[in-house]
Amino acid sequence: MELRTLRYFVAVAEELHFGRAATRLHMSQPPLSRAIRQLEGEVGATLLDRSPSGVALTPVGTVLLDEARALLDHAERARARVVAAAGAALLTVGILGDSTDAAALRLAGAYRRRHPDVEVRIRETDLADPTCGLHAGLVDVALTRGPFDETGLTVRELREDAVGALLRTDDPLARREDVRLADLADRRWFLFPEGTDPVWQAYWSGGEPREGPVVRAVQECRQAVLWNGTVGLTLLGHRPGRGLTVVPLADMRPSRVVAAWRAGDTNPLIRSFVQIAAAAYGG
Fold first, then answer.
1. pLDDT digit string, tens, across residues 84-99
2. How far is CA 161 from CA 67, 177, 216, 249, in A?
3. pLDDT value of residue 283
4. Rounded Cα distance, 193 and 280, in Å
5. How far apart are CA 140 and CA 137, in angstroms?
6. Is the four-CA dihedral 254, 260, 262, 266 of positive or negative sign?
7. CB-count burial class (<10 Å; 0-12, 13-18, 19+) for 232
8. pTM here?
9. Which of 56-70, 77-91, 160-174, 254-268 has the lowest mean pLDDT?
């Protein structure tokens, strides 16, 4: 059994859907299906029960999933140790926003335990660059939020977070159980600087052109609301501080936490980072 085929199988087993697995692997569905059929032929048993709605693991498939994960994990550890021995044990990680997220702390601890000899350099970036320097070649991998221009990048979703409207506590809308984007249509919003990724800006502007003060950091967003009565979007789980309230947005899709890296980059330290991040964030 080839490691590549085992990676294919693990993706299908985790997604329980060939289409989603193919998207995750950045390949088309037919060769993925052929690879799984070939793997079933090699082991001499059916690994997946297929249906129009998706797939389910057979008892044999469940056993192979555990073994495949262990084999792939061992292979990644070996590659990372070789890279470290060659003197390339350095990983630069770009982080957007709050690096004190409990999942980010779990990720840091788990990566340190897995790769104690790897030096990890952190580059925190402001809200104007959601790729955290990836496009500029300043980091190896980014722990950030989508959506943004993914051209030339590979992106792995880690978690979804609900979004709410950031308001002054004395704002009449702050007393509502939830609001809709239409309720905020005539308000001034905080905006990101000119040249910010338009996909990113459109999401945090609720999909509409807005007017308002320019901000670069989370704290600047809060101050813009507190001092000027502007509005904007923030994570529902964030504590905004005294004088501010976050109200759930009923018609806003969640914000995605993602890991992103340059497409085609085969650095095993990146692959291991993404694997550990997926476990830490439950993605």
1. 665 557 899 999 865 6
2. 32, 18, 21, 12
3. 55
4. 32
5. 7
6. negative
7. buried
8. 0.70
9. 77-91
Amino acid identity of residue 172, one-letter, is P
The tokens describing 144, both together, are 């950030």
Q: pLDDT: is 77 or 235 the higher one?
A: 235
123-174 confidence digits (pLDDT tens): 988 888 999 989 888 999 999 998 999 999 999 999 999 999 999 999 999 9
Asked whether the CA dihedral 11, 280, 154, 237 is positive or negative, the reply is positive
Distance CA 188, CA 201 (A): 15
Q: Write a three-state SS string for the chain.
A: CCHHHHHHHHHHHHHCCHHHHHHHHCCCHHHHHHHHHHHHHHHCCCCEEEECCEEEECHHHHHHHHHHHHHHHHHHHHHHHHHHHCCCCEEEEEEECCCCCHHHHHHHHHHHHHCCCCEEEEEEECCCCCCCCCCCCCCCEEEEEECCCCCCEEEEEEEEECEEEEEECCCHHHHCCCECHHHHCCCCECECCCCCCHHHHHHHCCCCCCCCCECCCHHHHHHHHHHHCCEEEEECCCCCCCCEEEEEECCCCCEEEEEEEECCCCCHHHHHHHHHHHHHHCC
